[in-house]
Each structure stands twice: as C-alpha cells, then as structure tokens.
C-alpha cells in the first residue's frame, strides 16, 4: 500500500511539471506572436513609406513635365 501511495505522489508531481511546461510553452508562443506582429507592423510601415515616396515622385515628375510646356504651375508644384 505504501508503494502505491508513493507512486501516486510521483504522478502528481509529473502532472504539475507538465502543467508548468505547458504554461511556459504558451507564454513562448504568445511572445513569438507578438514578435511576428511587431515585425509585420514594421514591414507595413516600410512599404507604406516606399509607396508614399513613389506617389510623390510620380506627382513631382508629372508636375515637371507640365512645367516644360507652361510656367503657370510653378508655384503649385513647389
């Protein structure tokens, strides 16, 4: 009987360790998700900045093509 009680105690300890390791894994997964979200947010900002620069460059170049034919738009483009 005593041996069987000892076995039960060991099983309880093992199950507690399993619970702890599951919690640690869950926390690691949450950290990984947060890291990935942060990385995606930074990439999104980077791509948005490139698109804004591209649009501004297109507007600037089209404005200068207008300037070559007429000087009326000089103040609006500057």
From TrEMBL:
Biased composition (Acidic residues): 1-33
Domain of life (superkingdom): Eukaryota
Region: Disordered, residue numbers: 1-36
Name of protein: Uncharacterized protein
Annotated organism of origin: Papaver nudicaule (Iceland poppy)
Source organism phylogeny: Eukaryota, Viridiplantae, Streptophyta, Embryophyta, Tracheophyta
């Amino acid at each position: 009987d005593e041996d069987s009680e000892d076995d039960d105690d060991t099983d309880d300890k093992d199950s507690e360790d399993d619970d702890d390791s599951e919690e640690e894994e869950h926390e690691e997964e949450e950290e990984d998700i947060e890291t990935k979200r942060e990385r995606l947010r930074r990439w999104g900002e980077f791509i948005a900045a490139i698109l804004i620069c591209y649009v501004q460059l297109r507007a600037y170049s089209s404005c200068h093509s207008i300037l070559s034919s007429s000087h009326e738009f000089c103040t609006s483009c500057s």
